[in-house]
Amino acid sequence: MKYFYLLCFCLSLSFAAFAQEKIQFNPHYSANTIYEINSYTNESKVIDFKGDVSYMIAMKRKGIKLPIKIKNIDKDTYYLFTQPIKKNKTPFVFSYEKFDKENYLNDSLEQKTKASDVGLSALGYFEENKQMKVTKVVGTSLSNKVQKAVAKVIEDLANQAKYPNKEMGIGESFDVENSLPINIEGIGSVLLTVQVTYLLTDIKEGKAYFTEKIQIAIDGKQDIREKFSFEGGGQGLMIYDVATHRIEKIETTIQGDIRMDGPGLTVTIGLEETTRVLTTIIKPEDMDE
């Protein structure tokens, strides 16, 4: 009989271990919470021109040395203050707290901008489906047109990641796809589509770990595709905190090559961008530190 009890005990441990291999993936911002969001972006571009002798001589006379190297580093801090739920909506205040920007041209620092207490805030609410709606933008000397533009940018960025609400186990995945129309002067309109495949690889200590595979595609009319092309993609990781329904960390690297062909001139752009976003929950008293 003792062997039967031992077998039951071992089976219960096995079932418990199996149960821990599943999570409810449902990322969202909780009501009545303060989030600190730190964003870091390092973007590098190498731009080169090839074409008729007349173009190349004109560039040389203007003192343009090829290839042109551009590098931009951005460090931003935001605060998101959510309030108690009212009529099935979660009101929020989104505050742009500080930024630190560095711009390089051909490996030389061209501009460095640093500011705290930026004074730009957005007010709005999260709907039941977790979509963000901005109702007002508050900032110094902002026209109505600029306020609407800023509100649109914030909404688009926040609502891009259409994450599912589903139970997931290790080895399962889901896709998030976003499309963005781009108008390229002198060429026309193309559709940029970014598809990210998230694969759940591990669950431990209350956190779920995902890898990211990023695929980027360009679509347009045949004559436009002959003038404009893009090849590239990327990879990354995402960490999801199960208890707080919070995406704690996202880190991605994208690499690509752009080619634009015009009359007598071809422009190539090699790009690489690394982005890291960390989201933490803080206490009200920590805001004064």
Distance between the termini: 62 Å
Helix/strand order = HEEHEEEEHEEEEHEEE
Mean pLDDT: 83
SS class: alpha+beta
Query: How many strands appear in the DSSP assignment?
Result: 13
Largest sheet: 11 strands, antiparallel
Indicate the low-confidence ranges by residue numbers.
Answer: 1-19
**How large is the share of residues in beta strands?**
over 45%
Rg: 24 Å
Shape: globular
Number of helices: 4
Which range best describes the helical content: under 10%, 10-25%, 25-40%, 40-55%, 55-70% or over 70%? 10-25%
User: Strand sequence of the main sheet, in spatial order?
Assistant: 6-5-4-3-2-13-12-11-10-9-8
Task: Describe the protein in words.
This protein has 289 residues and is an alpha+beta fold. 16% of the residues lie in helices and 60% in strands. It is built from four helices and 13 strands. The chain has helices spanning 2-19, 53-61, 144-159, 222-225, and strands spanning 22-25, 34-51, 68-82, 90-105, 108-126, 132-138, 166-169, 173-184, 188-204, 207-219, 228-241, 246-262, 265-282. The chain is globular.
Give a quick precis of the structure.
The chain contains four helices and 13 strands. The chain is α+β, with helices and mostly antiparallel strands and 289 residues long.
List the helices and strands and how they pair.
Layout: H1 2-19, E1 22-25, E2 34-51, H2 53-61, E3 68-82, E4 90-105, E5 108-126, E6 132-138, H3 144-159, E7 166-169, E8 173-184, E9 188-204, E10 207-219, H4 222-225, E11 228-241, E12 246-262, E13 265-282
Antiparallel strand pairs: 1-7, 2-3, 2-13, 3-4, 4-5, 5-6, 8-9, 9-10, 10-11, 11-12, 12-13
